[in-house]
Amino acid sequence: MAESEVTRTDELPAADRETVKAWLDRVPVESEDSRARHAAFEHKVRQLLQQRNAILVAHYYTDPDLQKLAEETGGLVADSLEMARFGTQCSADTLVVAGVRFMGETAKILNPEKTVLMPTLEATCSLDIGCPAEEFSKFCRAHPDHEVVVYANTSVGVKAISDWVVTSAIAVDVVEHLLDQGKKVIWAPDKHLGRYIQQKLGTQDMLLWDGACIVHEEFKTRALLQMKHLHPDAAVLAHPESPLSVLELADVVGSTTQIINAARNRAEQKFIVATDQGIFYKLQQNAPDKEFIMAPTSGEGATCRSCANCPWMGMNNMENLYYSLLKGTNEILVDPELGRRALVPLQKMLQFRDKSST
Ligand code: SF4
Predict the structure, then answer these.
(1) Superfamily of domain 127-211
(2) Does residue 308 line the site of ligand 1, with CB under 6 A?
(3) Which of the residues 93, 249, 272, 351 has an alpha carbon 20 to 30 A from that of 25?
């Protein structure tokens, strides 16, 4: 959008002003009964984690109470890359993964000897759903001279036919590494992250699968411009699953961990954040004196598919976590042959990450 098209917020129509303001005023409402019930489940979960020699690994996008519980019981709150690594390094018999299904599957592939439970098996991801293994396999077979690089947000079947698995923390570096070797790349499934990688590396030598994250795709460029005008002292932190036009307005584009680090280390006191709201727990914990504002999505309620809340991450709660631990339900099982094949690109991801961090 050209500079002349930018509207100051106090010049906006009243409805637009209300939309921006609504993002600043959102407060969850809870009754005393539901708080007591929640506390009772939490108490039992703490006991069961000990009894089962289990460890809770939670993603940054899950309910802050689950994140807090993971921290307080010796577990981990992290992005999908660190979640994957952590499972391989801890001595627990059972990993309880609060996140979405591909995270549980990744944990099982990397730790076949461990029991992997999830609060719910229904928590999936629009990127995973939008990239069925059979269709993707056909696409890859049609381009046999390409190296296949997939995002971690994919099924075991997709990982099993891929050369590399990456997360947003290392996606640009891995593709650059391959392009430097003269390789052509198939990238799947997130087209926004794919376009960001192309722009960052100045290449068109990538075939992109047409998938998207329903949460990050909702962030709106024009409304973000308006919010920047309302808060000219704020830096914009954005996850690369957001549309390129949003990323172009960002001061920092990075994985969830990179966003948290930027908020802690940068000089600004105020940040507009374009990723799932669950991350606010860690942002506030890491930079308690700073102010965080959610980047605007397309609207509220029925007009917004996610309102910066991943519906699948939101399926994890204290109650279903309790029942999963109590009964051993929602266990992740992976076909051994597929798991063996998917392990190869996953191990490459962990080795690449280890090399680049030394
Ligand atoms: S936030 Fe997006 S990418 Fe992450 S699990 Fe939800 S739908 Fe998938």
Answers:
(1) NadA-like (3.40.50.10800)
(2) no
(3) 249
Q: Which fold has domain 216-309?
A: Rossmann fold (3.40.50)
164 sits in which H/E element: strand 164-166
Q: How far, in Å, CA of 29 to CA of 40, rounded?
A: 19
The C-alpha atoms of residue 237 and residue 294 are separated, in whole angstroms, by: 10
- Whether omega before 189 lies within 30 degrees of 0, making that bond cis, reads yes
In b/e form, how buried is each residue of 86-99, taking b as 16+ CB within 10 angstroms?
bbeeeebebbbbbb
User: What pLDDT, on the 0 to 100 scale, is given for residue 11?
Assistant: 43
Residue ranges covered by each domain of the chain: 32-123+314-333, 127-211, 216-309
**Mean pLDDT confidence for 287-310:** 82
User: How much is the CA Rg of the chain, to the nearest whole Å?
Assistant: 21
For residue 330 the two structure tokens come to: 């929602």
Phi and psi at residue 212, to the nearest 5°? -155, 155
- 118-143 residue pLDDT tens: 999 999 999 999 999 999 999 999 99
Note the pLDDT tens digit of each residue in 17-56.
454 444 444 445 567 888 899 999 999 999 999 999 999 9
**Could you read off the pLDDT of 76-110 as tens digits, one per residue?**
999 988 898 898 899 999 999 999 999 999 999 99
Assess whether the C-beta atom of 214 lies below 6 angstroms from ligand 1: yes
Neighbours of 117 (CB within 10 A): 25
pTM (2 d.p.): 0.88
Q: What is the DSSP string of 114-147?
A: SEEE-S-S----HHHHTS-HHHHHHHHHT-TTEE
CB of 274 within 6 A of ligand 1: the answer is: no
Strands (E), 198-240: 206-208, 235-238
Size of the chain, expressed as the number of residues it contains: 358
Ligand 1 neighbour 313 (Cβ under 6 A): yes
Asked if residues 78 and 257 have their Cβ atoms less than 8 Å apart, the reply is yes
Query: Which of 105, 125, 155, 277 should be mutated for ligand 1, with most atoms under 8 A from CB?
Result: 125
Tell me the fold of 32-123+314-333. Rossmann fold (3.40.50)
CA distances from 314 to 183, 206, 277, 279, 328 (A): 39, 33, 11, 13, 21
Q: Whose CA is nearest to atom 8 of ligand 1?
A: 125
